[in-house]
Every structure is written in C-alpha cells, then in structure tokens.
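Anyone up for a design puzzle?
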C-alpha cells in the first residue's frame, strides 16, 4: 500500500518525506486553510503559489500531489483544474486534480452531475483526477466509469456518520470498533427472529423492527469506513477497473492497518497518524534493554 500524506503543511511534508515513507500528498481547501492558519499563528505569511511549488518539489518527481478545485459548476471547475495543472505540473510532473463526486450541497440539486462531467472531460484532456468526497460504493463505481485515476472514499466520515446516527459520543481520532457494533446488531437480529419464529416469513420480512436490526449501524448496507473501502475494492476487482482506491479521512493507526488488510492501493494519512504508527511500548522496552546490555567488547567494534 502506498502512503500519501494528507496535509498542506510544508514542515509536515518535509519531515515525513525525510523518513522515506511518502509516496504522494493530498490536499483540500480545509487542509490549505489549516496550513495558512498555522503559518499566520507564527506571524508568517504564505505565498500560495510558492508554497504549492515547494510541496511539489519536496515530494518529488512523479509522486502525486492532489490539488482541489474550489468552484461547484462544470465550466468553472474545468477552468480551475486547467489552471492548477498547467501552473504546477511542470515543477515535478506530479499534479492530480481533486474533483468532488457531487458538487451539490444537498439543497439545490442542479449540479448533481457536474462532478462526473468534469471527471470525464479532464480524462479526455489527460489530466489525472482524484475523485473526492466519496461516501458510497455506488459513487465510487460512477467515479471509475467517468475515468477517475483515483477514488477517495472518506472512511473516517462514514464512521462518524454511523456513530452519530446511533448517538454514540466520540472524539475525532477515536477508533470505531465496527466488529463490536456488528456483533451487537447480529445479537439483536437473532433475538428478534426468535421472538417472531411463530409468524409467517412474509410478515417477519416486512416487520419494521426486524428491518431495524438488519440495518442497525449501517449506511446503505455499509457498516464502517473500512467496510466502504472493502466494498469498493471488491467492485473494482470484479471488473478489473484500474482506478486506484485512496483510503481517505483516516483518523488513527489501527484504521491504517485495516485499510492495508483490505487491500487499499493507497492510504492518505494525516501527519499525526503517521507518527502514531511508529510507537509500541514493547519496542521502547526492547530499546532500553538492548542499550543496557551493550558490553564494552561489542562497543569496541565501533571505535
Ligand atoms: O483525505 C480527506 C481528509 O482530508 C478529510 O479528513 O478527517 O476531515 O474527515 P477528515
């Protein structure tokens, strides 16, 4: 699995690149805002064009840097995609344009399909696209059909959505134990079925309480962000679809492991989560004992 860093902060990109583990960078308007705010807090100004050029150079030739458009209509998005691509791709030949799968804000549905139109149009212009804000397998299939190079399912936000619907309190970085949630759902379902065993199957099938047990903790049949990524990978493999899956909106190290197990092509990971991946108390304990056990005869080798 490739590791992208999900940030626009240059110091984080430089640091993670120095560890030799970065295969690419993803940004979005919120991450750009965070980078600008962090610099302002240090009374530093940002020169956006120079900043992005440095990101492209730091990550290096051919390692994708995703930059997102800011408009929500077809014509404007195409214009912005071309500006971003032509301004920055010459630096290190690594620009990918981020296009939302659907630019509608849930109220005015007139721009529902503009994202798809832009994805296919940019594909015809050979501008690589990373389709963002993917929250369902159905959206991921459409993104691939339209010619996306990358599809970014937002795993953490799906976990948030499921937990919020269940009224479960959580902090942003908390791990979502979807296996536990699944077990709770199954138990409820079997208890319910037992209660209704005397009823004809059609009435059990139509029973709203039974249905609630089956749909328990699910969003359109998807039980977690990891579940969403797994489903997309399965669909892409079924049809030999070349679009690469970027597991995005990653919140903790355990989620990264689950994305790798699921077979995600890429995980785009915030800097703090990449840092979290390195630690283990037994590694620290091991280091202490190795240092304590170094005998003078062995140290002499290095003099
Ligand atoms: O990669 C997408 C990411 O930046 C969104 O993350 O944590 O805001 O859901 P988050």
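Challenge accepted. My sequence:
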């Amino acid at each position: 699995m490739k590791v992208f860093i999900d940030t626009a902060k240059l110091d984080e990109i430089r640091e993670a690149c120095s560890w030799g583990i970065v295969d690419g960078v993803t940004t979005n308007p919120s991450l750009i805002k965070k980078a600008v705010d962090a610099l302002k807090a240090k009374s530093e100004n940002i020169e956006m064009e120079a900043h992005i050029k440095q990101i492209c150079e730091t990550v290096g030739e051919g390692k994708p840097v995703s930059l997102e458009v800011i408009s929500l209509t077809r014509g404007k998005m195409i214009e912005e995609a071309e500006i971003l691509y032509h301004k920055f791709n010459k630096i290190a030949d690594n620009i990918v344009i981020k296009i939302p799968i659907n630019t509608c804000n849930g109220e005015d549905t007139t721009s529902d399909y503009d994202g798809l139109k832009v994805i296919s149009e940019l594909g015809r212009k050979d501008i690589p696209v990373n389709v963002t804000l993917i929250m369902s397998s159905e959206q991921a299939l459409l993104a691939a059909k339209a010619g996306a190079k990358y599809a970014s399912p937002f795993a953490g936000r799906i976990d948030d959505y499921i937990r919020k619907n269940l009224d479960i309190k959580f902090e942003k970085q908390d791990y979502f134990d979807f296996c536990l949630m699944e077990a709770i759902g199954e138990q409820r379902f079997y208890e319910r079925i037992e209660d209704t065993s005397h009823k004809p199957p059609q009435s059990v099938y139509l029973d709203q309480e039974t249905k609630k047990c089956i749909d328990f903790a699910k969003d359109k049949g998807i039980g977690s962000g990891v579940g969403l990524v797994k489903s997309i990978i399965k669909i892409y493999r079924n049809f030999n679809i070349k679009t690469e899956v970027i597991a995005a909106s990653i919140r903790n190290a355990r989620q990264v492991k689950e994305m790798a197990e699921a077979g995600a092509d890429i995980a785009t990971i915030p800097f703090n989560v990449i840092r979290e991946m390195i630690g283990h108390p037994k590694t620290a304990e091991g280091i202490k004992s190795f240092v304590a056990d170094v005998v003078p005869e062995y140290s002499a080798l290095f003099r």
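A detail worth pointing out: The CA atoms of residues 116 and 142 lie 8 Å apart.
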